[in-house]
Amino acid sequence: MSDLDREMLEVFLTDAEEQLTIFENELLNMEANPDDEETIKTIFRSMHTLKGSAGFVNLSEVESFTHKLENLLSELRDKHLKNNPEIIEILFQSKDILNSMINAISSNGEPPDRFKINEVEKMIKDIIKTSSTDIELEEDESQLEQQSMAESYFRVELKFRTDVFETGTDPILLIEDLSKQCIVISTAMNIKNVPLFPKINPFENQLSWKIIVQSPNGRKTIDDVFMFAAMDNDIVVEKIEKDELEVVEESKIGELLIREGYLEESEIEEIMDRHMKIGEELVKEGKVTKKIVDTMAEKQEEIRKIQRTNTLRIDTDKLDRIIESIGEVVVVKSRIRQIMERKGWMDLEEEATLTELDRYINNLQKDVMDTRMVPIKDTLLPFRRLVRDIAKKQEKDIDLEILGESTELDKTITEKIKDPLKHMLRNSIDHGIESPQERIGLGKKPKGNIILEASHQNGEVIITISDDGKGIDREAVTKKAIERGLIEKDKVLTQEEANKMIFRPGFSTAEQVTDISGRGVGMDVVKDNINSIQGEIEIQSEPGKGSTFTIHIPLTLAIIEGILISVGSNKMIIPIQSVVKFLPLEANKIHRVNHEQTIEFQNAYIPVIDLCRQLGFKDGTKAMLIIVQSGNSNIALIIDEVIGKYQIVIKSLEENFKKVKYCAGATVLGDGSVALILDAKSLIRSYRQ
Amino acid sequence: MEAKAGIYLTLRLGKETYGIPVLKVQEIIGRTEITEIPRMPQYIKGVINLRGKIIPLMDLRLKFNLEEKAYTDRTVFVVLEVHLADKKRQMGIVVDSVSEVVKLEDAMIEPPPSYGFDVDSEFIVGMGKQNEKVIMLLDIEKVLTEKEMAFIAEEAKE
Q: Do residues A34 and A171 both lie within one domain?
């Protein structure tokens, strides 16, 4: 496969994924609102786009399948078919088939079952057949309609974007298509913007058209021709009366003169140039001040700019490399500062230049980080399908509400919260929401509610999942915990203890392992996953009323704040959210209990660990204690010195080496040396075992 | 594996000369600050910063059970690009000094004898002979993998 082919295939895959997401979402909307025309149209459009791009990269299987789907959808759109649950189910199955077709291409996934494809294609065919009979019945009516439309005339104004050729739209093909579908009465092409021959850029479109047509099927025929072009080009279709035809249009006289060939474009322009702009004229007349006109001109410019905003797809690897490079720049800059300081003194100019550099680098860093921020929407919306499918399987009736879908966070984090959220939702459906009968018996609405909400708070992203199900059953949890040997036999858990218990490893309250809540993947794994992206999870639950899980996650993982400490002859970073407190080490406060060192902290005895010894480093001064936390556990570490608070860029140790015990990665400090990042969680866990 | 004809970078450890295929050598850098890594065998000296990349550093002397020697100005870090565990990785080795780049023809390479080495003979894939000098050709990937891979497996189990 050539590079170009591969590139095109990649573009196709990204696009296909997008179209399938739209398809699925709209399908879910359709389920709630089967006759919504907009929904049907959107699905039709996305399938049409997919068909087109599949044809472009020669994926005939996808092309032919989407073509059949398109037929079905156009029957729906044109109301030859009445939507029903059966059709929606076929559409859902079709979506799954397309999904596996695409996956088979992109990641060598399992190709869809040929048998299944045939089955769905047959269902589509059968359904369309039923519609043809409907058409016959309606024929009289539509004939009437056609007659009334036969006399309809339209003015079609086509203003394509300058870069229209790059979007794959060819105005000429569209106009040809239009002339096939309609009778063209007159055409006027505007060449006003075309530059002189030597300056013509063949890649840019400077033409626009005004075409008067007589349409056999009214506006729809024309709209169909320009359906896709109309999305990002300026296309106006206006109905006109027959008697208007004579006065073709109210063109400016200059334009008419050019069109009829009496004058050259440049001659008109010359005259126009002599003409003052309206703003200048108004100032001269004393109607407004010059200042106001200038401000308005600026506004105008701004509006133009906004309209020109474009988007561009970028490989995240490329962004990561830019972020990495900026990290290097920051480090080198600190080194320059250190070198200058070592020299003894810096003059004002040097100092000012460095400060300026600082500022630019900070801005740059911020801007690049911004490019990684994506709305959480794409992560959350697919859950609608998940919830629908699971609820259906379990014969539960559940409404999933998604709020705050525009909340932005780092792309890498969105990828990492997907699985934990999925498990949590499954748990909520599986163990939270009761069956409709149960709910009626409890005096609740038969339909259960799950709310998935994302928001920004104090530089963090908060995601909550709340359900109005049965909540955490304290007694069942206690019973299970005793069975599993997690607590003493006669212990009675409080509600809060029971809530926390579900996060304990080896605890799963599922009466039986269903294929839905997963095989032994419990909340402890969810918690671990969230902790691994520096996040925290909490639960609130009220028996009989439901549970709310709250996840706090950082906006980004690429840069974190940490405390730099020295231990032995090494420097280490402790992420700031793990740090509780620093204390000078006072030997008399440390007690020995069963050969373990402990210290009293917040009315509890917590273990004291000699970090040097734990990590196998040479002994240092051991003058400080730092209290770190993970989850609800604290631990005191003996270290040498606390150096200060730093913003650091996290680097992987695994890229060239491997995972290192007790370390969450490494970073490069201002002097170019490497500091390891302490993973408080694994340290605390290993101590507990 | 058998040593092939090609261009080799020769390094010195004590009295011995070793050769590494020059294609695997990314660059040679001077001593830089090393950050220790917890709980590693002695010959893994730690990690260094190579233009923002964190790369591990192995002391070849210690790996080959030679006597430890304090680093001097002549000590160099050789950065290698190797293919380990299905990934291209950059790793550094510490040697006493690098000497030269030599071209070895097939005729100049002999199979390794199976006895009489300080170094585990399994790392030697051939003996290069040039002007009476003997160059021990290393399977550097094997040197860098071997026991380290056991660590990776161990951690994966946890």
A: no
